[in-house]
Amino acid sequence: MNANKVAINVCNAYRNEHLTIILLLGIVYSKTTFDVVKFGAVGDGQTDDSEAFVKAWKALCGAAAAGDDVPTLTIPGRKTFLLQPSEFEGPCKSKSVHVQVSGNLMAPKTPDAWKVCPPYSWLSFRNVDNLILDGSGKIDGQGSAWWSK
């Protein structure tokens, strides 16, 4: 799969009641993992964890995997991570990267709380080949706040 750009568009998604993204489902085993908490993410739903996520992504994307290993960015369960609009840029050194969402990702609750909105996407993956995104967590773009816009 070639995923040159996958974006979770919230600014323009106010007309859609639900936003669903399915990239690839499967079981991925990785010896090389990057836990966002180890990069400074708090996961209390109040603290802006964007910088920690970008740092963890850069480490993931810069990792060269050996053999069939797929470097994995882990977002632990039982936590809610508040994220401002963020861009996760490739190309990555590994032929494939895995983002395992076990916790919850949450956009700021109101449009006024967004630090930036152009180019009208909340989470964006650019120039990333073979992106695997899976897990039991939730991705909450706070869409209802945009519906009245």
Which keywords apply here?
single chain, 149 residues, mainly beta, globular, disordered N terminus
Quick structural overview:
The protein has two helices and eleven strands. The protein is mainly β.
Can you describe what's shown?
- The protein is mainly beta.
- It has one domain.
- The chain contains 2 helices and 11 strands; from the N terminus they run βββαββββββββα.
- The chain has a 4-stranded parallel sheet, with helices on one face. A 4-stranded parallel sheet has the order 3-5-8-11, with no helix packed on it.
- The radius of gyration is 15 Å and the shape is globular.
- The relative contact order is 0.28.
- The N terminus is likely disordered.
Note the topology:
Blueprint: E1 2-8, E2 33-35, E3 44-48, H1 50-62, E4 72-75, E5 80-82, E6 86-89, E7 97-101, E8 104-106, E9 123-129, E10 131-134, E11 139-140, H2 144-147
Parallel strand pairs: 2-4, 3-5, 4-7, 5-8, 6-9, 7-10, 8-11
Antiparallel strand pairs: 1-9
Structural class: mainly beta
Largest sheet: 4 strands, parallel
Helix content: 10-25%
**Proportion of strand residues:** 25-35%
Question: What oligomeric assembly is this protein in?
Answer: single chain
Instruction: Please give the number of β-strands.
Output: 11
Q: Order of strands across the widest beta sheet?
A: 2-4-7-10
**Can you give the mean pLDDT?**
82
Give the distance, in angstroms, between the N- and C-terminal Cα atoms: 35 Å
Shape: globular
Counting structural domains, the number is 1
Q: List segments where confidence is low: pLDDT < 50 over at least 5 consecutive residues.
A: 1-26
Give the SSE string.
EEEHEEEEEEEEH
Radius of gyration: 15 Å
Query: Count of helices?
Result: 2
